[in-house]
Amino acid sequence: MAIDIEKIKSAEEDATARIAEAKKRIAGELAEAKDSAEAKVREAESRAKQSVAEAGERGKKEALDKAEESKAAQAEKIENLRKSAESKADKAIDKIVEAF
């Protein structure tokens, strides 16, 4: 049984070529996976920033709405006090007129 050196060399070269191709394919897949992961991270960061911004805007709007409500309530209280004061003044005037 003779060992065919040419067949061994050919098989070795073929194996080396297949290993190189596999390394290239794996490197490509890893690069794609890395790019995909980085894109997902950027997208998640963007969504998180948007959510924070929206929450901030909602918070501002809620604060402004509460301030408006408070302002309206104060205006209503002032109007009620003014009406009460006018009514008391009118009654006082009526009593003064009756007294004369």
List the defining traits of the structure above:
about 100 residues, 1 helix, about 95% helix
Structure description:
By secondary structure, the protein is mainly α. It contains 1 helix and no strands. The protein has one helix at residues 5-99. The longest helix is centred in the middle third of the chain and has 95 residues, at 5-99. The radius of gyration is 43 Å and the shape is rod-shaped. The protein starts with a helix and ends with a helix. The mean pLDDT is 87.
Outline of the structure:
With 100 residues, the protein is an all-alpha fold.
Strand content: under 5%
Main pleated sheet = none
| Shape estimate | rod-shaped
Mean pLDDT: 87
Structural class: mainly alpha
Report the span from N to C terminus. 148 Å
Quantity of strands, as a count: 0
- Residue share in helices? over 70%
- The whole-angstrom Rg is 43 Å
Number of helices: 1
Ranges where pLDDT stays below 50 over 5 or more residues in a row are none
SSE order, as H and E? H
Outline the secondary-structure elements.
Elements: H1 5-99
